[in-house]
Amino acid sequence: MLLHGIIPPVTTPFYPDGRVYLKKLEHNVDRYSKTPAAGIVVLGSTGEAIMLSDEERREVLAVAREACAPHKVLIAGTGAESAFETLRSTEYAAELGYDVALVRTPHFYRPQMQPANLLTFYRTVADRSPIPVLIYSVPVFTNYDMPEELIVELASHPNIIGIKESSGDVEKVRRLAVTTKHVKRSVTVTETFAPVTPRMLKAAAPERASATGELIPVGALAGTNDDSGDSPRRMGEGGPPTATRSAEPSSSAISVLGGLKTRQKEVGFQILAGTAQRLKPCLDAGAVGGVLAFSTAAPTACYEIYAAWKEGDAELAHLKQERIVKAATRVASQIGIPGTKYALDLNGYYGGPPRLPLLPLTADLKHEVEQLMADIRN
Question: Which residues are known catalytic residues?
Fold first, then answer.
């Protein structure tokens, strides 16, 4: 699965009384579907997933999946403290049609979270997950900074396709890009090198998918360096089998897959930045995109950094980066979810209140956010 580009981790809207506001979630996801974002993350840290009940998380996943355009990569935050619960959530997300599982590092029993524990945890989840796994390292919340050696070892697993590295450590990103360079996988992309998802294939050929009930081999879309045919498959998704994977780094050959013109592209272990204020430095260091809290309020502003970098215009990318540094640092990183949600309100999305114990912004903080976001509109 290709994960290049900007992927906003959407917020979970609430009514003033704390109930989940599903209609506003639909509204927000529909709007993100019209932006240049490559996809969305549902139930990440920005989505206050840890504040939700199991039933609420399932509702949020279902509603967001229905509202999301099929050409966007759909990532579900399914990480929990146990491998059992993580797999249960991942299997549910796969049944709904999610493309990737974002699995944060377990951290509650911090003294016991040694490399052997994390290695076994991620391998167990990846071995059994019906969809590709994206590691989520977020030390600011977990107080656990995943060791580079552990990430490198996990990078070779055929069902672990990358990491969202939210430490903000650019040099760590650079080292990971070098030490995982040996990982080479071929993934299915569109004729214009955009991601191909099982949902996209199903939408392109709904009648055939419905009639045949064939499974889509996720390995061909996710990327695998294993031709054994044992890669996990999505459960319950229909569609024709994928075309044979090319052995070349990238192929100009066009294949028709589920009524969609596709080709093969070689990718490595995909590193996604987790902080908007360091997006360009992380891209320069080897990241291929970002899952950025600030991009929920300013998806286009963040995309402009990526687009300029992708085109090789370093000067423009730097200018676009400097434009958001102060706002991204203060609103998303320091004020956090309440600030991010208020920034959404300013930019035409529904932010609304956070869930207790997080508090809505004071009048002074609202004024500060308004000033910071004054020239960042989407």
Answer: 164
